[in-house]
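# step 3/5: fold
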Amino acid sequence: MEVTYRSCHVVTVPELNLDADCWVPKAEVSWNEHGIPRHQLITGLNDYFKIIDEAEINAVEIAKAWIDLALADDHTQ
């Protein structure tokens, strides 16, 4: 799943945890900061999601929350 949120590109990359038989929600967030490409990997709970679609939805949600915090920090400096 790919989305754009607040000028950031979010790509979900869920990973199967074979030990827990669950999907780990992960998202790669990328953006440009003063013309310099930046990226951050965001990871959620690793033993919760049995369905990949739910892990992807959660990955987008945690990525958006991270972006909101990151942008808030940028505006307070």
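# step 4/5: annotate
Strands lie at 2-5, 8-12, 15-17, 22-24, 26-33, 36-43.
# step 5/5: archive (pending)
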